[in-house]
Amino acid sequence: MVERERSEGEAARALTSGPPQQQQQEGAAEGERDEKEGDEREEEDRGDEAVEWSEIRLAIEELSPPARLKHGGGGDGMADASSLPTLRFLALSHLLLRVLDKIGPTMAVLRLDVQRNIERLQKLYLSDPAKYSTLTGVVEKEVKEGTARKVDSCARAVLWLARSMDFTIVLLQSLEDSEQQQSLAELVEAAYEVCLKPWHGWISSAACKIALKLIPERKVFTSLLLGMGQDRCALKDEIRRLALLLRPLLDDIHSMMAKFRLDRIKST
After folding, report:
1. Whether residue 240 is found in the same domain as residue 147
2. pLDDT under 50 in the chain at which residues?
3. How far is CA 126 from CA 129, 148, 162, in A?
4. Are residues 196 and 112 in the same domain?
5. Domain that holds residue 17
6. Does any domain span residue 268?
7. CA 163 – CA 158 distance, rounded (Å)
8. CA–CA distance, 103 with 147 (Å, rounded to integer)
9. 105 and 25, same structural domain?
10. Other Cβ atoms closer than 10 A to 85
11. Mind listing the pLDDT tens digit for each residue in 43-99?
């Protein structure tokens, strides 16, 4: 009786589990599937790592609603200067530096000016992030103290960083809109004439005029702007998107500076 029950139990186990060879085959197949899925995940991870975002794409992300919420701005995709977080403005300014670097040493004078303005504004922000969380807070503080027009003021830093962004976005748009026959030097000069020259004294203008002679070829600059795996059509689309996002903010900053009568400040 016991022997029969044991035999029946073994038979039942054999029916449910299958022969040993079949179990081994199924285990091997499952292992291969797991290994294949693991390889696919690794390929996806490597693909993500290989994608290097361009400065333009990073700026678009910085201006997007999720980034605005992260840095304390509004979530509607638009904000005026009073709610523009200082931290996000600094992030955009750092991206501006990287674009200027791609033009090469020609932009050394402008780049140095941008770098100094970033450092000045950043130093004030870090001294009290809550107090100087917005650009309006920064400018109002110096207006009340009577220091906004000083050469080393943060109000001036905000103004010149905004003007430098004006220059950059006009240059990028002309790169996207203009005929291929125009050289990068011509595009840079045109953007400079509109955005920066009206506010530069003769010393700054002379330095920029000399620098224009050393600008690289247009195709070299364009290739440097491209993110890894990005084509020129995608670059044009991103330039348009960046202009749509950035222009209203720059206009609001200039309006704020005009309200405090700081919009006509010039350099030497």
Report:
1. yes
2. 1-17, 19-20, 22-23, 28, 42-50, 69, 71, 74-79, 81
3. 5, 19, 20
4. yes
5. 2-46
6. no
7. 9
8. 34
9. no
10. 21
11. 444 444 445 788 999 999 988 876 554 545 544 444 454 568 999 999 999 999 999
- Same domain flag for 187 and 207: yes
Do residues 151 and 228 share a domain? yes
Classify residue 209: in a domain, yes or no.
yes
Instruction: Mention every residue, 6+ apart, whose C-beta is less than 8 A from residue 108.
Output: 211
In order, the DSSP letters of the chain are -HHHHHHHHHHHHHHHH--HHHHHHHHHHHHHHHHHHHHHHHHHHHHHHH----HHHHHHHHHSHHHHHHTT--SSS---GGG-BHHHHHHHHHHHHHHHHHH-GGGHHHHHHHHHHHHHHHHHHHH-TTTTSBHHHHHHHHHHHT-TTSTT-HHHHHHHHHHHHHHHHHHHHHHHHS-TTS-HHHHHHHHHHHHTGGG--HHHHHHHHHHGGG---HHHHHHHHSPTT--HHHHHHHHHHHHHHHHHHHHHHHHHHHHTT-TT----
